[in-house]
């Protein structure tokens, strides 16, 4: 699973990433320029109004003009504080602490100070923001002593300033909480997308494994046929030339088909479904209607098979059930050919909708016990069949019955 990427904006960062953000950001986005410009204009407008009111000695904004030199100095300091707002994203705490002594005597810089304190609340953890705000609140009584407000008493002015700061803090905390919620939702969305991609990839791998397993069963069947014909040629060197030619033809076609199946297996295991143009259509998988062809192929290889088909509507069998029934019949014939060479095999299909599909393969138990096959198998054929039957919701039985024959029987559900 891939980790969530760092968001593009510092206001979308959790507490642990806020402090390190200035080092990562090298340029402002258009939105950053718009917000910074708006704050700059607001602070500059507040400075102009405060300067004009102070010059007219009007208490409209609770400002005290003071001597002329103080007004000129206040205006110059206010302009510097407003210009420093362009650095607030990189050093918000540093600017807030640098403006702390200015807050004692300057009135025109009040707008810029509020913007910087708002930035600290939004971009820095609560303990840091609380310390900076506490320091600014502590200098409020001293500032009102140096520049008293002629319109209200000092306690009332202190409460007024504290109320403004409290409103600014509440706004900043709301913005910070909202942006942390946004980054949390974005992180969840990215994680959900990564998990969905992982589930898709796992489904692809499961499907590849399933296809490879089916091809393995087909390949084992073909190689067993090839071995059977080769054994017939070995024990009948005096057979008629026509029979030898026919057996050699079957061996050649079986070997060619086995190579094609092996190539298909390798292709499935190496396939990269994400590469453009790599997806190739899969050949149609055999179903229950292909069982007669499978029986004819085994008979042509010399097996003695009695085949009974009592399925009411074989063309109506669900595709998954039909494939499973075919694989059961294929595995039963392959095992009979390997372990009971020359024994008669009885293959029976029966069932219908609501009744279920029954597949039975029975062969005589060889004298002296099962023979060791010339071609070693993987030993997982019946395990794979049992897994298929279990996934289909059916039942599987195999082993020697009361008559001593080996019996492989499966029942698969067939809904109407």
UniProtKB/TrEMBL annotation:
It catalyses: ATP + protein L-histidine = ADP + protein N-phospho-L-histidine. Its EC number is 2.7.13.3. The keyword Hydrolase does not apply. Pfam families: HisKA_3. It is an enzyme of class 2 (transferase). GO terms for molecular function: ATP binding; phosphorelay sensor kinase activity; protein dimerization activity. One of its GO terms (cellular component) is membrane. Residues 207-272 form the Signal transduction histidine kinase subgroup 3 dimerisation and phosphoacceptor domain. Keywords: ATP-binding, Coiled coil, Kinase, Membrane, Nucleotide-binding, Phosphoprotein, Transferase, Transmembrane, Transmembrane helix, Two-component regulatory system. It comes from the Bacteria. The chain crosses the membrane at residues 33-49, 69-87, 94-120, 156-174. CDD domains: HATPase_UhpB-NarQ-NarX-like. Residues 175-206 form a coiled coil. This is histidine kinase. It comes from Micromonospora rosaria. The lineage of its organism: Bacteria, Bacillati, Actinomycetota, Actinomycetes, Micromonosporales.
């Amino acid at each position: 699973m891939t980790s969530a990427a760092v968001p593009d904006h510092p206001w979308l960062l959790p507490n642990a990433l806020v402090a390190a953000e200035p080092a990562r950001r090298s340029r402002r986005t258009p939105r950053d320029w718009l917000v910074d410009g708006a704050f700059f204009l607001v602070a500059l407008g507040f400075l102009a109004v405060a300067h004009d009111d102070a010059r007219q000695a009007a208490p409209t904004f609770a400002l005290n003009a003071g001597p002329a030199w103080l007004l000129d100095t206040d205006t110059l300091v206010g302009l510097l504080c407003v210009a420093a707002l362009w650095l607030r994203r990189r050093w918000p705490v540093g600017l807030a602490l640098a403006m702390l002594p200015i807050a004692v005597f300057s009135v025109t810089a009040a707008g810029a100070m509020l913007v910087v304190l708002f930035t600290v609340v939004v971009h820095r953890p609560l303990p840091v923001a609380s310390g900076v705000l506490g320091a600014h609140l502590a200098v409020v009584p001293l500032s009102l002593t140096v520049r008293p407000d002629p319109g209200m008493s000092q306690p009332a002015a202190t409460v007024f300033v504290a109320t403004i700061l409290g409103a600014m803090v509440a706004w900043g905390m709301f913005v910070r909480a909202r942006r942390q919620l946004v980054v949390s939702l974005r992180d969840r969305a990215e994680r959900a997308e990564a998990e969905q991609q992982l589930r898709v990839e796992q489904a692809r791998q499961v499907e590849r494994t399933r296809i490879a397993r089916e091809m393995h069963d087909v390949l084992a069947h073909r190689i067993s046929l090839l071995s059977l014909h080769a054994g017939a040629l070995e024990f009948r060197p005096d057979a008629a030339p026509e029979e030898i030619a026919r057996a050699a033809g079957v061996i050649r076609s079986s070997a060619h088909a086995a190579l094609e199946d092996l190539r298909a297996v390798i292709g499935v295991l190496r396939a990269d479904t994400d590469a453009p143009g790599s997806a190739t259509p899969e050949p149609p998988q055999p179903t229950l209607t292909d069982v007669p062809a499978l029986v004819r192929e085994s008979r042509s290889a010399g097996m003695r098979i009695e085949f009974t088909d009592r399925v009411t509507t074989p063309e109506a069998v669900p595709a998954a059930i039909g494939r499973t029934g075919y694989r059961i019949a294929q595995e039963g014939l392959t095992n009979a050919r390997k372990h009971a060479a020359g024994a008669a095999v009885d293959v029976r299909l029966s069932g219908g909708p609501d009744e279920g599909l029954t597949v039975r393969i029975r062969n005589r138990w060889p004298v002296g016990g099962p023979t060791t096959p010339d071609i070693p198998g993987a030993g997982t054929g019946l395990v794979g069949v049992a897994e298929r039957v279990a996934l289909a919701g059916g039942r599987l039985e195999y082993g020697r019955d009361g008559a001593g024959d080996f019996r492989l029987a499966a029942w698969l559900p067939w809904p109407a």
